[in-house]
Amino acid sequence: MQGNANSFNAALRTGADQVEFDGEVWAQVPPGSDVESFVRQFQRNRSDARLADYERVSVVFRDPEGNDLGRYRLGERLP
């Protein structure tokens, strides 16, 4: 995944739509990426009501070698 926070947010919205807001969206990111910060930014830009639309969507981050870098439920706001 390339680009800035806005392109990441748009990609997540598109992925969530593709799985009909019920499933996993996979994102390939560079090794060592701070994937939690991506999720925090996505969640910060949404109200609780809007975030509830994503309660059944998970994002799975992998590096180019396929290593799992993290899994997050988008509708569960990080502390």
Task: Show the helix and strand layout.
Layout: H1 5-18, E1 23-28, H2 35-44, H3 48-51, E2 57-62, E3 68-73
Parallel strand pairs: 1-2
Antiparallel strand pairs: 2-3
Structural account:
With 79 residues, this protein is α+β, with helices and mostly antiparallel strands. The protein has one domain (5-73). 35% of the residues lie in helices and 23% in strands. It has three helices and three strands, in the order H-E-H-H-E-E. A hairpin with a 5-residue loop joins strand 2 (57-62) and strand 3. The longest helix has 14 residues, at 5-18. The radius of gyration is 12 Å and the shape is globular.
Structural descriptors:
3 strands; 35% helix; alpha+beta; 79 residues; single chain
Envelope shape = globular
- Regarding quaternary structure, what we see is single chain
Which range does the strand content fall in?
Answer: 15-25%
Major sheet attributes: 3 strands, mixed
- Strand arrangement, major sheet: 1-2-3
Task: State the helicity in percent bands.
Answer: 25-40%
Taken in chain order, the helices and strands follow as HEHHEE
Low-confidence parts lasting 5 or more residues at pLDDT below 50? none
Tally of contiguous helical segments: 3
Number of domains: 1
Number of strands: 3
Average of pLDDT: 92
Q: Report the radius of gyration as a whole number of Å.
A: 12 Å
